[in-house]
Design goal:
This protein has 268 residues and is α/β, with parallel strands linked by helices. The chain folds into two domains: 156 residues, Rossmann fold (3-Layer(aba) Sandwich), CATH 3.40.50.1000; 95 residues, 2-Layer Sandwich (Hypothetical Protein, Haloacid Dehalogenase-like Hydrolase, Chain: A, domain 2). 31% of the residues lie in helices and 22% in strands. It has ten helices and 14 strands. The strands form three sheets. The chain has a six-stranded mixed sheet. The longest helix is centred in the middle third of the chain and has 13 residues. The chain is globular and about 55 Å long.
Amino acid sequence: MSNKKLSDFKALLFDVDRTLTDTNCNISTEVIFALNKLNQEGFTIGVCSGRGTPHLLNKVLPIFPENSLHITTSGSRLINSKGKIFWEQSIEEETIKNLRKYIAENNMLAVFFKNDALYAIDPILTNLKNNPWDVIVKNLNKMTNDGIGAVYIPNPNDETLRYIENASLSYKKMNDNFGNPYIDITPKGINKSSTLKRWSEYTGIPPEKIIAFGDSLNDMEFLQACGFKVAMGNSVTEIKKIADRVIGHTDNNSLAEYLTKIIQGGDL
């Protein structure tokens, strides 16, 4: 059991999907209340998410203070709650051009993450339009190849993974809420942890003073870099193994219960 307290830390960073949200993409009123309380008590709070700005801007980021700094787009963007970019790294245009050609030739689906919108074709395009977060989405045929921070590809096969590796890109292979595999592709060497260093430079808060929350494989390096690691009960086994604390399932409002407990002085 940990005898550390919330007061031993200065910041809390949250993964979004199945951590801050339940499996239906909802953020409970109790979680929002706890975040407001943390802010009132002087703690720095933000998200550290694979989601891009167009995912988060309308429904997720507004529950944070305007000056909060967030790691998004699997680490390729550092933004505030209004979407202002403080740092970014994009995939090279020629690499995106070749990737789009590869995807088209192999009849694959993908989502391209830009600052202004997510770009995709149906059926993903329609699914994104129906997302409860009011996601900003456009048809892929309107996209230029500049400013792409990440690419999502569902159900990748081994040949696709080899192509990504040969293109000198980084990727994480994970499963969605329904257990379906997908990959998030980023510029080489970019992940949540690599951009955490820049987050710390901007905020003046070292990683050892951060409490980190996550559930998926793309949270691994980010969690390991922080001072206290909290895994959701719905986390993959690898995340639970490295956690300092495993709490309940996200669908049981366990994040709100845990935050309330530590705000009231309970042990981490």
